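#structure-requests
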Amino acid sequence: MSEGHRSDPVPAEDLRTTEVDLGGLVSVLATHLYSTPLVALRELVQNAHDSHTRRRLEDPDGGHPPLIRVRGDSARRTVSIEDTGAGLTEPEIHSYLATVGTGYTRLLREVTGDDALIGAFGLGFLSAFSVADEVTVTTTSHREPALGHRYRSRGGEQYSVEATAARPGPGSVVELTLKAEHAHLADEHALREVLGRYCVLLPIPVYVGDDDRPVNDVPVPWRESVPGDPHAARMRFAAAFGRRFEPLTAFPVTPVEGGTDAVGLLWVQDGGTYGSSDNRDLAVYLRGMLLSEDARDLLPSWAGFVGGVVESSRLTPTASREDLQRDDHYRALQQALTDAIVDGLYETARLHPAAWRRILARHGQDLLGAALCDDRLFTLLADDVPVPTSQGDLTAGALRAAGGGAVHVALGSSGGFEEMLYRAMQVPIARGDRYAVLPFLRRYARLRECRIVELGSENGNRELFREPERPLPAEERAWLAAALADDGEQLVPARFDPPGLPLVLVPDREAELKSRIEDDRADGRIPSAALRLARAFTARTGGEVRARLYLNLAAPAVQDLLTAYRAGHTGAATAAGLLSSLKVIMAAASGPSSAGAPAGDLTAALAGIGTAVRALTAARPAGLAAVPDTLPDEDPA
């Protein structure tokens, strides 16, 4: 409306009624409103349930036994849904059954306030036309038990109503003549499977065919007092309801005052989570009828190992009744479920230690991430959850104890100098490249006030490779660099454990990154924007030093080598050659070299060992003084 325009009342004779293409509307609602034709069965059983609730409200002293029976006839390609509910009078057929968007259930709920009534939009009956060519309803009202009426429609756009013999008792039979593409719905085995899922919480028994036992004959632990151990009853329900995984433990969902009325059950699934798809599996029931089979967004994102079922009367469904509106009740239920999972895990750790151990073993990786998302979980899991390490899964406490009060974590992938070095030290190192390991251990170190050594970082390497007590003279350092270091390697005198390890070659992480992103093939592997940022970051790195060769001045072998060199011993060069060969062999054993890191010639290194052995064992020429087996402790005067 333009500014300043005044809206005057429109004369009644100028008002027009909006035309509705009923055929198109029926087609859209019946064919496109629902995601699966199976919803038609749910809607019709739901209508049968509401018919029973209506009869209970309108005839509380009638004493009628509620019953819903669904039959399939594959030969005739029909499905029928029979109930012993209130039935319909002929005016009600015209007013409610044959009028889109008008439902007696909604009117009855507004009058009585009864939360047991499920229907809300007056669209459920229309779903029958999504699977059926023809729909027939034969009904007798509890108000007119001597009269019967038959509604018949093909496609839902036009219908007829005729008088027929009264049924033996009040109630209705809805018969669907199925479309050819939905003929499989007439298979009673398929009906049992579908209705067993849809109706498991419905308080009215639902039978298929001539079965004597209803498909929803499953004890619901939060509705009734089950004899024996309550946890065992929850586990039985979870095992019966869960479709994909065996439950490891189960815990209740209870109403929260001022928050949600939802009740139900959650369980931890014995199914893979880390490195696989999201396995959250939550079914939501509204007043006893399945509303959503995949309501995973109600569960916290870190709970990929949790399944469950909840029911509520406050949640608001969408028009298709296959999803929920994201309103205040939805958000209150999200919080309630998060709290229920945390409380349930605490209960399991305290009361069911065997199940708790299975959960930690099965879902340790997921729980590492979960602990970072919730302070309560971190407190519970800090000393229990397993962390992947070079020596298998260990708790953070075990890592700390084995590391002499420090937690050691490698920032790179498995293998490399870190693992080789700590294997020699017999100290486990955590896999910092695994999901949530590094942030979990950082937080653990703050909580327990212990050191964390991050191998591969500048600070971690500084703590690992300590400064020597006295610097090497420039001449000795130059000789050692020439004898031991290859091109691109920088000799770094240091002291580190264990003393038996004379040297270790450590790749320069920034030089590795620079080499990878400056490779011509990186243009095809990495998005251009990310590549520009990475190249800007590594521009400060010269790349000349691709690895650092840390020489352990605390190692007896290195001390003997220096003593020999200072004494002018003829075997010093041979010994240095042995150490150089050892360097190459150790680098090869620690894993494949990274891009740009010096790999060394393994064949030449092995040959060098043979050369050194021959030199040390060669026959002494006549007249040459014998080489002493030991070296003097001090330099000659």
